[in-house]
Write a structure and sequence with these properties.
With 377 residues, the protein is of the alpha/beta class. 38% of the residues lie in helices and 15% in strands. The chain has twelve helices and 15 strands. The longest helix has 18 residues.
Length: 377
């Protein structure tokens, strides 16, 4: 059996191991140290968001953002339904109420109209939502201009889940820099990785200072251990940050490689009926974290996403359905939902194809052969 071709696997550059060795040599094997400080500065430089706190995961970063916005029990948070559960779980950690919002077909992200309908619905009932949690799924930026207007109109802050979108932008402005808070993830499957990790970004210096305080068990200023508020142990290790500093140096190459993967699939499926891509709207740059296609089952029975996935699996090639929307998850049974069936249709028709920046030309040949044999079967 040939080696497995993964959906998205870690891709180290040349500096990461050197940095880790340096961290060992200087004994900064701790959740403090020079690489943490450098990684935070480098991330701020990259996204042009003034302040960054690196943490143990993207999920932890979202949790901190919710705490900083005082989201508490029974508060409403408006959350994109079409996402990974890491977006919405922190809402539940706070015992707040997630209200899920459908996607629009152009970017597959939060639908501004459904968002506004939900806001009006809850304001009318005297329950103004506390935050808008928008996601740039698969690296495609959401409609931040439209969502930003709504956020300002109703004075509801935005948390931008840019876990999948480091390197993506709208008219040159980085994803994660539009809202009150931006969050990033460096999990093993993301465009760059620290094995596990995340970041919280904001232009509000005191908010990020408070995030650091909450992420280090909320220790009050005293010689002994004094605690007056609930905190977490969320700080990133200097070892992870050492990897992150090296990874950030090759991010632009990783984006270029993933965009080339997308182009590869686009060419491969050219002239195949019933295959749809996610095109970039004018001014939008997607890092193409994952290349996804939609297959129209009705037009051509052969093109069932599940048959396609199984076919690739037989050739030891990993693929996945698109994220299952949160409003369809058993965990969120009974949660309020606003919108139509866009997210649901995306889940039913879509498939993510191998998208790693480390795919070799041999890998691509294998993928091409497998896809062609599926299309001809
Ligand atoms: C990966 C991911 C997260 C969570 O990040 P972790 O670092 O894995 O906790 C959140 N939202 C989205 C959209 C993600 O893809």
């Amino acid at each position: 059996m040939k080696d497995k071709i993964w959906l998205s696997s870690p891709h180290m550059g040349t500096e990461e191991l050197k940095n880790v060795q340096e961290a060992f040599a200087t004994n900064w094997v701790a959740p403090v140290g020079p690489f943490i400080n450098q990684f935070e500065r480098d991330l701020s430089d990259y996204t042009q968001v003034k302040h960054t706190a690196v943490v143990q995961s993207g999920t932890a970063a979202i949790h901190l953002a919710l705490r900083l916005l005082d989201v508490a029990k029974d508060d409403i948070v408006l959350c994109q339904s079409f996402t990974f559960i890491g977006s919405s779980n922190p809402i539940t950690y706070q015992q707040a109420q997630p209200v899920f919002i459908d996607s629009e077909p152009e970017t597959w992200n939060m639908c501004p109209e459904a968002l506004e309908t939900a806001i009006k619905h809850f304001i009318k009932r005297g329950k103004k939502p506390k935050a808008i949690l928008v996601v740039h799924l698969y690296g495609m930026p959401a409609k931040m201009k439209e969502i930003g207007v709504i956020s300002e109109r109703y004075e509801i802050p935005i948390i931008e889940d840019a876990a999948e979108a480091l390197g993506s932008s709208i008219e040159g402005q980085a994803c994660g820099s539009f809202g009150a808070f931006g969050i990033l993830s460096f999990n093993g499957n993301k465009i760059i990785t620290t094995s596990g990790g995340g970041a919280l970004q904001s232009n509000d210096e005191s908010a990020i200072a408070k995030a650091r305080f909450l992420a280090t068990q909320a220790k009050d200023n005293a010689p002994h251990y004094e605690h007056s508020t609930l905190g977490y142990n969320y700080r990133m290790s200097n070892i992870a940050a050492a990897i992150g500093v090296g990874q950030l140096q090759v991010l632009d190459d990783r984006v270029a490689a993933r965009r080339a993967n997308y182009k590869f699939y686009e060419d491969l499926f050219k002239n195949v009926d019933g295959v749809q891509f996610l095109e970039e709207p004018q001014g939008y740059i997607s890092n193409r974290w994952l290349s996804c296609v939609l297959l129209e089952q009705s037009e051509n029975k052969k093109l069932s996403p599940e048959d396609f996935r199984l076919h690739l699996e037989q050739d030891n090639i990993e693929s996945r359905p698109l994220w299952k929307p949160m409003h369809m998850q058993p965990l969120y049974k009974g949660a309020a939902y606003f919108g139509g069936t866009i997210a649901e249709q995306l889940f039913q028709k879509g498939i993510c194809l191998p998208s790693g920046s480390n795919l070799t030309s041999q890998d691509k040949e294998r993928i091409q052969k497998s896809i062609q044999s599926f299309l001809n079967s």
